[in-house]
Amino acid sequence: MVMTRRAPDSCPGVLRLHEAADGPLARIRVPGGRLEPAQVQTLAEAARDLADGTIELTSRGNVQLRRVSDAGALTDRLAAAGLLPSTTHERVRNIIASPLSGRIGGLADVHPLVSPLDSGLLAAPRLAGLPGRVLFTLDDGRGDVSGLGPDIGVHAVGGDEFALLLAGRDSGLRLAAADAVDVVLAAAHEFLALRGDDAGRWRLHEIPDGAERVIDRLGLSPSAERLEFDPTPSIPIGWLEQDNGLVGLGAGVRLGSLPARTAEFLAAVERPVFVTPWRSLVLTDLAEWVAEQVVRVLAPMGLIFDADSPWLLVSACAGQPGCAKSHTDVRADAADAVDSGRVLPGPADPVDVPQPLPATDVAVAGRQHWSGCDRRCGRPRGEVTDVVATDEGYRVD
Predict the structure, then answer these.
(1) Which of 271, 322, 324, 384 has the fewest CB atoms lying closer than 10 Å?
(2) What pTM, to 2 d.p., does this model score?
(3) 373-395 pLDDT, tens digit each
């Protein structure tokens, strides 16, 4: 049997930084997206003191810091704040949970599953070998995170029953809530066993018949009609009435870049903050009068509480100067398109003018992703118009 050498897993973390074009980048896993106020404050101070002054939100509900100047000091601060509970498993803790679960709607509260799943990952030395790109999802039945293509996930189909998701699809298996975490962890072990020494097989869907083989190895039999999931759910933005009478606030973050000073104001509210996979935030458990004050203070600082804002239609890769492969500063060009009114609501319109276009001529309706090259890093799932930089301008696909 010929064994292939596994390509190195270059997915960044805190202990293994990515050498971006503009300096070292640290990615901090936030299981379930939940940050306590003190943790938000720690991130704000680290961004200000040790990085470029912003906290970037990622499409997996994690955060990252760019241009890290002192990796050791950052590690110490994050560990003290409970944001680095393991030196071996830090990059495999990619757990997304429905942000509103347990507070607004849903069939089951999935947030109580986050800690046992995270603890189970950390307790299994072998699971430190999972790829840094592996993704776990916990969906409360509303379908907001099941469409994100998880390697392994659960989706509530009742108050005490979950569908098991494998390789981004419903497996047809149904689990009791009490068994959900154990089965997810068992599936993670089987994924790792199937991956073996295959180079470049970072996700379960990259393994031929990966989902079916995991099911077979688990010794379970699919019995239910398979569900389909929408890859483009509505983003929770604005005033959110919680089931318990308190208020949540959904806040968009322009191009997913949160200034440290704004984060400090969020921490001062002293309520849990959830980072969403749509590069936005949900601030929870507020009295109505407190929520009103938060909007008055943070809206002028750039947080978006208007669900119709064109900023919510636009995402972008890092671009220059953060990425050496980018042809231009796409984030600046995307921001200029929003500010000048060239990002419009409604369905995407076909582009019927010669391409490529100068940045100042790009006008697109609907959801769009601006990319510095054809790799299209950070592109969200679902129906999205691609605005791709080339040597001669932008191409709209």
Answers:
(1) 324
(2) 0.95
(3) 999 999 998 889 999 999 999 99
